[in-house]
């Protein structure tokens, strides 16, 4: 099939485009949010083609993957009047947890007559539970991860944290918990727009350090840290958590959202009590052997539940349903 999909979430899209289809990714002048084109940081196959809106007008498209509320109208315009869900099959992928008046937040697809009958695909069961999707047909296709390999060394007695925009997102990402947790282990924070985080939290650079590395080196650098720390209170299941597990890293995480399903017993420590998390962090620093053993279990669990083949097979089954 020729699948139209916007480049919205790099890690998720990287897994999605590993399938056996042709993927048409919009590109606009300046590579703005509605036309980022091919990724500059991840590895995508040659089956991913950039197309401008002008070229999309007459392009053969067999399926549209929508990920944001305005993309249905955008697709209709750029596809020369072909309407997603009516003139061309479509699915809507919801990556995020609801905001606003949780748990009563109404999903944008719930009241859309133009998307009536378009499958709403959640990436976690937690998201499906908390979104009010109305009469929209819903299903769950859990994350899949391109396996980076068992790279864990844990040689650095530090904890890796991956977060984007930790200052404006604040309590949502658990940024306020970092000072207490940094007393258990020095933190290396990876992610976008993390500048000034140590100063913002009043921490010395030796307790919280910005780890600025290119995407190509991210996994190798994460795997050098003794453990992966995941403090978000409210988020969809982060790809970075699953990638850390694939790397063979033990996980210390808040027992919130889908993390309680993703991290099985023996693969790390989950708790809603920051002091318990801090104690687990100190334990892994003292016992590198235990950290490696728990990390190996985390990797096996991640490969079993969030492996790329299962992910792509789930999508193929949905595609077959749409074609029937």
Average pLDDT, to the nearest integer? 95
Succession of helices and strands: EHEEHEHEEHEEHHEHEHEHEHEHHH
Termini separation: 14 Å
Could you estimate the helical fraction of the residues in percent?
Answer: 25-40%
For the biggest sheet, the summary is: 7 strands, parallel
| Radius of gyration over C-alpha positions, nearest whole angstrom | 20 Å
Structural class: alpha/beta
Number of strands: 13
Q: Approximately what portion of the residues adopt beta-strand conformation?
A: 15-25%
What is the strand arrangement across the widest sheet?
3-2-1-4-5-6-7
Offer a concise description of the structure.
With 324 residues, the protein is an alpha/beta fold. It has 13 helices and 13 strands. Helix content is 34%, strand content 17%.
Describe this protein's structure:
By secondary structure, this protein is an alpha/beta fold. 34% of the residues lie in helices and 17% in strands. The chain has 13 helices and 13 strands. It has helices at 10-16, 53-56, 71-78, 125-130, 166-169, 178-182, 197-201, 215-223, 239-247, 259-262, 274-286, 288-306, 308-323, and strands at 2-5, 22-26, 48-51, 63-66, 90-94, 120-122, 138-140, 156-162, 187-190, 208-210, 225-230, 251-254, 268-271. The protein has a 7-stranded parallel beta sheet. Helix 9 (239-247) packs across helix 12 (288-306). The chain is elongated, with a radius of gyration of 20 Å. The mean pLDDT is 95.
